[in-house]
Each structure stands twice: as structure tokens, then as C-alpha cells.
Amino acid sequence: MSDAKRITKSAVEAILPGQTLWDAELKGFGVRCQRRDRVYGLKYRLQGQQRWFTIGKHGSPWTADQARREAKRLLGLVASGEDPAMKKATDRSAPTVAELADLFLSEHVAAKNKGSTYAEYARLVNRIVKLRLGRRRANDVTHEDVRRLHFEYRATPYQANRLLALLSKMFAWSGRRGERNPCTGVERFGEKKRRRYLSAAEIQRLGAVLDQCECEGGVSLYPVAAIRLLLLTGARLSEILALRWAWVDQERACLSLPDSKTGAKEIHLSDPALAILAALPRVVDNPFVVVGQRPGRHLVNLEKPWRYVRAQAGLDDVRLHDLRHSFASIGAGAGLGLPMIGALLGHTQAATTARYAHLAADPLKVANEVIGQKILALMSGPPAEPKDPT
Q1: Range 9-93: architecture per CATH
Q2: What's the whole-number average pLDDT of the chain?
Q3: pLDDT per position as a tens digit, 121-132
Q4: Which sign, positive or negative, has the C-alpha torsion 93, 98, 102, 108?
Q5: CA 352 → CA 262, 286, 330, 382, distances in Å?
Q6: Using 50, 70 and 90 to split pLDDT, how confident is the model at 117?
Q7: Nearest to 201 by CA among 314, 305, 303
């Protein structure tokens, strides 16, 4: 058909294979009849070159009216200097979310983050991101896609928020800085911070169980030593399990870690901690302090022996990381300042140590109570005899 006429459903279905019908009202809007399908498209000129943009096949979802509206939208983009055909070709070559996630892990996270961060990101990518968004083109992921995925994990707010943080970093790294990051505006769930500190009585029960394990068995020597060191140093679990004898400085009474969550770090050792290290037997051809079952390797899982120990001590709700919190709480209760506690724990931000501020106030309450009781005793006692002026 060479004559232009308004494109309608009946007009589209009347054209024969090889024919093209141009719309009489919207310049450049047309429909081609191929061997099997009738396809809507838009012909336009940009910077002196003619382009053809395929809108879609006639039928669901493209009706004549819907294709006309899309053609008008595309002409608006052309008027503003954009090239819809070029953008479509670019989008087709864009990586899928799965491909982008693999690149993000290998080229960014592995190079710039700690191993623990990489492991957590890889877990989220493989268990959630690839399964739910993996086949989508990265450029097609919308704010609503991210919001729905985040909402699905509302029962585990911590994991949902870590997933959102991962996606936000991944899309920002991908080069979508000039566009709106699909994660922008997704509100994070509130997280209840869990702070568990061992009381003096609980520490006594824990010590008794560890003594019993050393005497009677139940838990081998190295896991017991690791638990004691966690409480006595306030170190992180990974710092103790991966500790090498080469990093133990007996003269300076410290552990000189070449790397940690916050970079190179020194962990100071008290006399009780030094005594534990001195009593541990070294294993030939194994450089690690806390020896594992595999030759030449360190212990990788302290959870199983810890579950046994805490059950015997009646501490079923206590995690291994709570031993680090307990180390700090004892320091705060002894009147040590928050900067001192932060330095011992290796905190780089004062805000991280501020969580123990309410514990640091306890000695002030005790001192205040002592003063109040003395004042009360003075006020309640018999009046003092006046002195003779002569």
C-alpha cells in the first residue's frame, strides 16, 4: 500500500505480506506486514541520518492505539536529541544482573574489600540476587523491582538491608551514576541491635565449664583456648582462629596482625592471655595458634564446641561475638574511658564505641551513691560540739 491512511485495527489486518502502511496523521509511524507478523515501527531522521525503530508486533500487547502512543513518545525523545534506536541497541548489549554481579564481585569486591565482606556479598548474590533478578538486563531493573525484593525479606530485616546495600553498591559501580539508581528511595527496615553482656556470675560459670573441659574432655584443648582468648582480648573471632605464631609478640605482650577488618592492628595481651598462649603446644609444620583438624590448617568452626560449652554453663542465648561485647563492658564497668576501650577493641570510629556509654556510667552511679550515703550519715548523726573560741 502506498497511500497513507489512519492506522487502525482493520487497516492493519487488511495489508498483505511485503506491504507497509504509513499513518496519515503521525509522520513516520507505520506498520509492515512480514511473512507472518505485522510489525509497528517509527521512521525518523536524526542528525541527517534516517532511522527505523521497531515498536512491536501487532496483537497483545501492541494494538494500533498503543503503538501510536508509543510512537508519539519516541518522537518526543527524538525532538530532545535522543536516539531511541541507538539506546535500544545499547540496552540489548547490556549485561544481565547475574553477569553484572559476577563482575562486581571479581573486579571490585575482591580487590577492595575484606575476605569476609566478599564471602557475605557472594552468599547474597548466589542465594538471592541471581535467583530473583539474574536473567534480567541490569538496565531494566526498576525501583519497584528492588522495593518488592527488599520487602519479601522483611521477616529478616538485617538480611534485607544488607541485600539492599549490596544492590545499591553494585548498580552505582556499574556506571549508572548518571541515572537514578533503582535502589534510591527504598526505605530500610528498622533493626533491633542486640547487645548481650556476660555478668560476673555468668563469667564464673563459663570459667568453671572451661576448666572442666580441660580436665575431663568434652571439648578439645584448642577450642577451649580460643574461647578464653576471645573473652580476654576482645578480639574478633576471625582474628583468633586465623592467628599465627609469627604474629605473637611475647616481649611486647601483643598480637601484631598484618590485616584485620580495620587494617593492620595490634591486640594487647594481659598476663592471663599470655599464660594461655604459653601453655598451648605448637604443632610441627602448622603455623597457626588454634590448630584445626586438617594438617597445617587452623580451626575453622568454633560454633559446635561453643554450643556445648554454653549449654553446660547455662548461657544458651550467648553468641561468640558477645564475648567481645563482654570484654568491653567489663572495661566500662571498671571506669575505663570510651576512647581507651575503643583503642583496645581496634575501633576506628568513636561512634562504634559509643554503644558502651551506658555501661561506662555505672561507676559514676556507684560513686554518687557512696557520696549520698556519707552525706546522709552526716546529716542524720548528732550535731558536733561547738569549739571553745578561747
Answers
A1: 2-Layer Sandwich (3.30)
A2: 84
A3: 999 999 999 999
A4: positive
A5: 12, 35, 17, 51
A6: confident
A7: 314
What is the CATH code of the structural domain delimited by 97-178?
1.10.150
Please indicate, yes or no, whether the overall pTM of this predicted structure exceeds 0.70: no
Task: Looking at 244-361, list the stretches that DSSP marks H as alpha helix, in order from N- to C-terminal side.
Answer: 271-279, 303-313, 321-333, 338-345, 350-353, 357-360
**Best CATH choice for the domain 200-362 from the list 1.10.443.10, 1.10.10.10, 2.40.10.220, 3.30.200.210:** 1.10.443.10
Q: Do domains 9-93 and 97-178 have the same CATH topology?
A: no
Grid coordinates of 251: 616481649
**Segment 298-312 mean pLDDT:** 91
Would you state the cell numbers that stand for residue 326, as one nine-digit string? 563482654
Q: Residue 141: CA atoms inside 13 Å, Cβ hemisphere, count?
A: 31
Query: Mind listing the pLDDT tens digit for each residue in 251-295?
Result: 888 888 887 776 777 888 888 889 999 999 999 899 999 998 888
The domain limits of the chain are 9-93, 97-178, 200-362
> What number of other Cβ atoms are within 10 A of residue 377's Cβ?
9
